[in-house]
Structures are given as structure tokens and as C-alpha cells.
Design goal:
The protein has helices spanning 132-148, 158-170, 174-187, 201-214; strands spanning 17-18, 28-31, 40-46, 54-60, 69-76, 81-83, 92-96, 114-120, 123-126. With 220 residues, it is an alpha+beta fold. It folds into two domains: 17-96, no CATH class; 132-214, no CATH class. Strand 6 and strand 7 (92-96) form a beta hairpin. Helix 1 packs antiparallel against helix 2. The longest helix is centred in the middle third of the chain and has 17 residues, at 132-148. It starts with 16 loop residues before the first strand and ends in a 6-residue tail after the last helix.
Length: 220
């Protein structure tokens, strides 16, 4: 089968280009995204622009059909990796949640918690909670970064602790998160260097909890 169409995306029209981040990196993959499904063609695209945007396009067709269906997801700045991490030998998409970028501080000081998506039918599904070991590993990274901010008196700490809180909430540790954040408020460790956002201390905790509920990390 030959697919002879101009590559386009809702995020960058017809001016996208292959996502060559690393020399020699493949941008076209033929993989099984579903255990019992037919192989799909996955295309890595880049939209251009500062901190934006890695787009993954999936091209599929059903058996005994010549119609190709295209689906896409914008992974933003963190991009994605096709990985085999489950038990069914299919591929999933390993990334990080770009919603956290700039939310509480500038991009450089923002933490982005782990995010894992699968693709089945015609939909990308968030399956991050199915991999608690990977979530716990990511949480450890962010809490270590938070602790390392002690040398600068936690001048810009809210971005990384937000990512840690999201990971821990996915693991069901919300009560421990609330206790930890309350202690950090009292110690004066929840600060942002971005004065235009002005989310520090208790104000940050309130905004963080609202944000985590909005994006499904905390139960409403």
C-alpha cells in the first residue's frame, strides 16, 4: 500500500518537518500499538518554535481495507519515545505532562511529571497509573531536585515539587503529599523566582491542588 498525501497537522499545517532531535534518529516507525492489531505507521513531527511542539501521527488501516486513517497527538516540548514497557509486546508512548510547563514558574524551573499514553481504536489513552514503579522512580527524581534547592534557600522550588506531588497523587499518596507541603509552607520552602506568577507558600498549595484536580491527578 502506498500513502501519497501531503503531511499536515492541525498544530502546524503543512509546514511541519520530521522530528530529527538526535542525529540518526528514525522518524518513521512501523510498530504494533495494540497486541492483536495490525502494525501502524508512526511519524514523528516537529512544529518549530521555542519549547514546541513534538507531534506524533499514527496512520492505521483495517484488514481488507485500503483506507488509511490518521490520528495525532501533540506532546508539546517533552516529546515522546516509543517503548515496550507492558506485558503484551505492543508499543506505548513515554512522555511527560506538558501542562506543568510555565504553570508555577518559568520553563527552566518547571517539573513535568511522567506521562504514558497508549493508542487503540482511534484514541490515545493515558495509562500512566498502570506503571507505578515508573511513577515512583519519577517522583524520586523530582523530590531529589527539590531537596537540592536547599543550597539556594529554595528560591525557585515550586515547579519541581508540583511534579513530585502529581506523581505521588497518582500513587495514592495524597494525604502524605498534603502533610509534606504543609511542612514546606511553614519552613518557607515553597517559592517562585517568577514574580509575575506570584504563587508561593500557601497560595501555591491552593493553586496546585486546584490544578491537580483539573488535570485528573487528584479526585474532585
Amino acid at each position: 500500500m502506498v500513502y501519497n498525501q501531503v503531511v499536515s497537522s492541525v498544530w502546524c499545517g503543512k509546514v511541519c518537518w520530521p522530528d530529527f532531535i538526535t542525529e540518526g534518529k528514525k522518524v518513521i516507525h512501523v510498530v504494533k500499538l495494540q497486541r492483536n492489531g495490525t502494525p501502524s505507521v508512526v511519524l514523528d513531527l516537529y512544529s518549530g518554535g521555542a519549547h514546541c511542539c513534538s507531534i506524533e501521527q499514527v496512520y492505521t488501516f483495517k484488514l481488507n481495507s485500503t483506507t488509511v486513517h490518521k490520528f495525532e497527538h501533540n506532546f508539546g516540548d517533552p516529546g515522546e519515545q516509543l517503548v515496550q514497557i507492558g506485558q503484551n509486546h505492543s508499543y506505548d508512548l513515554l512522555s511527560a505532562d506538558d501542562h506543568f510547563a510555565y504553570e508555577f514558574t518559568d520553563f527552566a524551573a518547571s517539573g513535568l511529571p511522567i506521562e504514558i499514553l497508549s493508542f487503540s481504536g482511534s484514541t490515545f489513552h493515558n495509562i500512566t497509573r498502570s506503571f507505578p514503579n515508573l511513577i515512583a522512580k519519577d517522583a524520586k527524581v523530582w523530590i531529589n531536585v527539590f531537596k537540592s534547592r536547599a543550597s539556594s534557600h529554595y528560591e525557585d522550588s515550586v515547579g519541581v515539587v508540583a511534579a513530585w506531588a502529581a506523581d505521588e497523587d497518582m500513587l495514592g499518596h495524597s494525604a502524605a503529599v498534603s502533610k509534606f507541603l504543609a511542612a514546606q509552607v511553614k519552613a518557607g520552602h515553597l517559592n517562585s523566582a517568577l514574580s509575575s506568577i506570584n504563587l508561593e507558600g500557601e497560595k501555591f498549595v491552593i493553586a496546585l491542588q486546584k490544578f491537580l484536580r483539573l488535570h485528573g491527578y487528584l479526585k474532585r
